[in-house]
Amino acid sequence: MGDKRIFNNCKTEIASEILFREEVPRIVEKLAATCSNGVCFDHVGPEPIPSKEAVVDIVDRAKRLLYPGYFLKGRLDKFNLDFYLGQEATELFELMSEQLTLALRHDCIRHDLPCVHCEESGQKATLNFMRDLPSLRLMLAADVRAAYQGDPAAKSYDEIIFSYPGLFAVTVHRIAHHLWEQQIPLIPRIVTEYAHSVTGIDIHPGAHIGESFFIDHGTGVVIGETTEIGDRVRLYQGVTLGALSLPRDAGDLLRDKKRHPTIEDDVIIYAGATILGGKTIIGARSIIGGNVWITESVPADTRVILKKPELLHIRQTPEPEKATA
After folding, report:
1. pLDDT at 11
2. Which helix (H) or strand (E) holds 299?
3. What is residue 241's DSSP assignment?
4. pTM for the whole structure
5. Are 283 and 266 in contact (CB under 8 A)?
6. Domain boundaries 220-308, CATH class
């Protein structure tokens, strides 16, 4: 009797499942309709699109060339160095040129642009990037040394390369900025937003950053697109180099204008400082204290700090103990 009851329950559940599954095609039909209503966003069409996963792979491969021996499972020595670099460089060229080609072709087809010979342009842009890898290594070496000199908690260069989020964000930015200057669409922003998601440091690929740049701690740092940063600049967590308040139609009005500040050489900006505006210039060797808000230029060799806040110490009267029965 019990077995028959279980069998009948199973038949009921199977019938219910069939009813539920019959609803799926109708949902799919409604979803497909949203792809042709001109309101929602999708990428349904003949033009190809870059792969975010492949772009992240490009970053990882570029890191292995920029810091040989640090980010691999095997052993690297003078006997296999040429073979290792040759293999990594060849794989990077193939993967990057493919993704850059997809990005260029996507823009051409989507926006009905004149033909730029996407595949050839993608390969040229990749070679331009790879030709600059030796000089990029020298620039990143200066960033590593700046981190070591600026952070007494750093015990070694290796520690900085392996673990500092600021160095990772700057490394990724320098990769993205090179592609940005070659006017590659989509890819530079995907690259920097990957670093943003990993570190909490948001650097737009268009920002110009000089040599020996160091971000200490880093979480919450924001550096806008038209920011210009000189050499030997140091930032701490929570610093914003941003734009002034924007009107509703700011995207069209201000897209190609300088909206973010200029930070000259040897400036230190402490935690939580906010510096806004395209006309705002922080003069060389200035020190910007924590939590300040700046919308006007600061002369060179100036220290900007907040007045010491008044702290109130209020003595609390202990509550009397409740009697227990």
Report:
1. 61
2. none
3. E
4. 0.86
5. no
6. mainly beta
Q: What is the pLDDT of residue 5?
A: 56
Give the single-character DSSP code of 205.
T
Domain boundaries, the chain: 44-200, 220-308
Sheet of strand 293-294, all strands in order from the earlier edge strand to the far edge: 202-203, 222-223, 240-242, 274-276, 293-294
- Give just the sign of the alpha carbon dihedral 147, 148, 152, 153: positive
**Closest to 59 in 3D by CA, of 158, 206, 224, 189:** 189
Please name every residue paired with 229 in a beta bridge, in sequence order, or none if there are none: 209, 263
From residue 292, how far is each of 7, 109, 206, 235, 308 by CA, in Å?
Answer: 72, 47, 25, 13, 12
Q: Which residues of the chain have pLDDT under 50?
A: none
CATH superfamily of 44-200: serine acetyltransferase, domain 1 (1.10.3130.10)
- Contacts for 185 with CB less than 8 Å, ≥ 6 apart: 103, 104, 106, 107
Helix ranges, 182-242 (H): 187-199
* Amino acid at site 197: S
* CA-based end-to-end distance of the chain: 59
